[in-house]
Design a protein that fits this description.
Order of helices and strands: HEEEEEEEHEE
Number of helices: 2
Radius of gyration: 27 Å
Largest sheet: 5 strands, parallel
Helix content: 10-25%
Mean pLDDT: 81
Shape: globular
Structural class: mainly beta
Strand order of the largest sheet: 7-5-3-1-8
Strand content: 25-35%
């Protein structure tokens, strides 16, 4: 004789919900458990730390906005951006542009470069003499979340976050390239005349 058991509607609902649970069954005692850490919130700055530089970086910190490529820019080729620094003493530079860039940096004999960080959406390259060993080139195209064009609409983190994370402090001044060139320095960095 076969007996048929009927479950109440409430019990059937509970059994159905238990089957749909997203909880994993408890692992057997002899299984190895691997825990994957959660993704960090915000920008991962670990790849954008300047090698061999103690923070905060000494000297004046200048940000150079390369802006959008000009009319003469050729698709798929680097844009040459020229930066001339005439400020005596220690300085650091954050160079940023959206397209592939070759930053041609020239410094005066009285200038000592403590660090340079070139950052963009596309690959960046720093060229020049007397620029010191602390240089870093990062871009989103090369998989570096912290390397991007800091004045773009989708920059994510802010310029202040970038200067704090990379240089350990806020920037002193911001310059924009005009016709592919910028000159940093001039009367504001010269001693005031004696009266």
């Amino acid at each position: 004789m076969t007996r048929v058991l009927r479950a109440s509607p409430g019990l059937a609902l509970l059994l159905g919900l238990a089957a749909c649970s997203d909880e994993a069954p408890a692992p057997a005692a002899d299984e190895n458990i691997v825990v994957t850490p959660a993704e960090p919130a915000g920008t991962d700055w670990s790849r954008c730390r300047l090698p061999g530089v103690a923070l905060p970086v000494p000297g004046k910190l200048f940000v150079v906005d390369g802006g959008q490529p000009g009319d003469r820019a050729e698709p798929g080729r680097e844009t040459i951006r020229r930066v001339e620094v005439l400020v005596p003493g220690d300085i650091a530079l954050l160079l940023t542009a959206p397209d592939a860039s070759a930053w041609a940096v020239r410094v005066s004999p009285e200038t000592k470069v403590t660090a340079i960080f070139a950052s963009g959406d596309q690959p960046q390259r720093i060229t020049g003499q007397g620029l010191g060993p602390s240089r870093l080139e990062r871009s989103v195209a090369m998989g570096d979340d912290c390397g991007r064009y800091w004045f773009g609409a989708d920059a994510g983190a802010t310029l202040e976050e970038a200067t704090q994370a990379v240089f350990g402090r806020r920037h002193d001044a911001r310059y924009s390239l005009l016709s592919g060139q910028v000159i940093i320095g001039g009367s504001e960095f010269q001693p005031e005349p004696e009266r």
